[in-house]
């Protein structure tokens, strides 16, 4: 069954206006996004991992944990549409079916799936790997079949830019659109020319990810709208400001220096929630040819 929020997102996509979706990760970030008049929100997997579980964004949070957080956030947002990160779908196509059903029941308006190898990692960290395009098309087919209505949109993200190059990423984006994805998303273009090429060569509604300190230049909303992008997500803005406020308060309380704790990029931020320790565990237990560290 469709919802008012899903209908609203489809209506927004039918206009030429760029949809600005701040990254939300808990109840208060969702409530504040709604109360400040934003028309959509994006549930950031990195933000949920860090804020909800004290973990870096390297595939450690489970489908059930993410779906429960989506339910909380969608409930707080009400009629404001939620685009929700679901990583790789958390397994084979049958696992993807269960993931989509859980997100669907949680009330999200769009579910984002990506073509990384599991365990995935933040799109703005190095050394990513992707599955072959045909494998991801199976993920897409499962997702499209599992949704309860066509108003629940499916966002197909490709991380192929880093390991395979921009040409391959554009080819995949168009392939995923032909396979039925409602919105496509090439992660981490690295300069303004790449942002423009994606806009001109991908034949589908486009989402762009603007991460503070990430690999993609922070183009203006006006320029992105001029290029024809449909959605711009800002997954790190609220989380970065909240983290800065907490660090500042904590350092004031015990008289310590704030500067050593301030992250300059996503990798620095993830070190605040244990990235170095998890990398060491990976080196300890994973085969050398399988390690992402």
TrEMBL record:
Tell me where on the tree of life, at the top rank, the source sits: Bacteria
Q: Which InterPro entries match?
A: ICL/PEPM, Isocitrate_lyase_ph_CS, Pyrv/PenolPyrv_kinase-like_dom, Pyrv_kinase-like_dom_sf
Alphabetized Pfam families for the sequence: PEP_mutase (PF13714)
Q: Which GO terms describe its molecular function?
A: oxo-acid-lyase activity
Which protein, by its recorded name, is this? Carboxyvinyl-carboxyphosphonate phosphorylmutase
Query: Which organism is the protein's source?
Result: Mycobacterium parmense
Q: What is the lineage of its organism?
A: Bacteria, Bacillati, Actinomycetota, Actinomycetes, Mycobacteriales
């Amino acid at each position: 069954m469709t919802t008012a929020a899903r209908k609203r997102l489809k209506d927004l996509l039918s206009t030429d206006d760029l949809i600005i979706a701040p990254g939300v990760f808990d109840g208060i970030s969702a409530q504040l996004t709604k109360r400040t008049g934003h028309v959509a929100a994006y549930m950031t997997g990195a933000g949920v991992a860090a804020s909800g579980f004290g973990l870096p964004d390297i595939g450690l949070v489970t489908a059930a944990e993410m779906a429960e957080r989506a339910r909380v956030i969608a409930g707080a947002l009400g009629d404001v549409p939620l685009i929700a990160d679901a990583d790789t779908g958390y397994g084979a196509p049958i696992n993807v079916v269960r993931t989509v059903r859980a997100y669907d029941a949680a009330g999200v308006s769009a579910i984002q799936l990506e073509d990384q190898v599991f365990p995935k990692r933040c799109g703005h960290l190095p050394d990513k790997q992707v599955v072959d395009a045909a494998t991801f098309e199976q993920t897409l087919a499962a997702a499209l079949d599992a949704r309860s209505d066509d108003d629940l949109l499916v966002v197909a993200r490709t991380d192929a830019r880093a390991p395979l190059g921009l040409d391959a990423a554009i080819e995949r984006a168009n392939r995923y659109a032909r396979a039925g994805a409602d919105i496509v998303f090439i992660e981490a273009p690295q300069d303004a020319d790449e942002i423009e090429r994606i806009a001109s060569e991908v034949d589908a509604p486009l989402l762009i990810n603007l991460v503070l300190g990430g690999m993609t230049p922070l183009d203006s909303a006006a320029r992105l709208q001029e290029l024809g992008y449909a959605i711009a997500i800002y997954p790190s803005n609220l989380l970065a400001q909240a983290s800065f406020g907490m660090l500042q308060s904590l350092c004031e309380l015990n008289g310590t220096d704030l500067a050593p704790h301030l992250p300059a990029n996503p990798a620095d931020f993830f070190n605040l929630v244990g990235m170095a320790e998890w990398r060491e565990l990976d080196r300890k237990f994973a085969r050398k040819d399988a390690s992402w560290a």
